[in-house]
Each structure stands twice: as structure tokens, then as C-alpha cells.
Request: fold
Amino acid sequence: MKKSAALPIALICLGAVWFLKSTALLPNTSTLLALLLIAAGCLLGLLDGLNKSTLVSSPLLVYAGAATYLRDNMGLHFSHLLSLGMVLAGLLMLLSRSDRIPERSTRWRSLPDKQDLP
Reply:
């Protein structure tokens, strides 16, 4: 019986992060968080496609990443970024109410039917 690969993978990840941090190749935490939020928003939009859910959540994740970057590196006020984010969220929610935008797909969260179970 094979042992779990969790410990070697954790050691590789921690060692890589430690190496990047000690050589100053790893960006600071806020920049890394901003990049991860932007990547998550883009990836969600690509994987799930355009529907009522991703029309709101994907751009908001990208905006959250951009706002985090602008707050920490450009010094913009939190209240300005938050109010602009509220306007963006409201506009996206209104846009998602359109009949032209499809409903959320069920391919990722579908459960087997009762007749398919043994």
C-alpha cells in the first residue's frame, strides 16, 4: 500500500516559497493576493462560462484583486475603492437579470439521479 504524497508535496511547496522569499523573487503578500484574486476571477469565467453567476462573481474577483493592488501600491482610499466596487456589483447584478444571459450550468454541481444509485 502506498503512503500519502501529502508530506512530500507540502515540503516541495514550502521549500519553493522559502527559496523565492529568501532570494527576493516572491512579491509581497498584498501583490500576491491581488494576483491570486485576478487569476481566480479569470479562471472561474473560463471554466464555468458565461452565465448569471459568473457574470457577477468573475468581474468582482478581478476588481477585488485590482482594488487590493491599487490600495497597497498606489495609496488609493479604501472608501473610494469600496464605493466603486458597490456600483460595479450593482451594475453587474442588473445586467445578469437579462433573459439573454443563461442560467447557471449544472455540470459542476450535478448529483446522480436516484435511479442511477445502486
Observations:
- The chain has a mean pLDDT of 87.
- The two ends are 28 Å apart (CA to CA).
- Residues 28-103 form one domain.
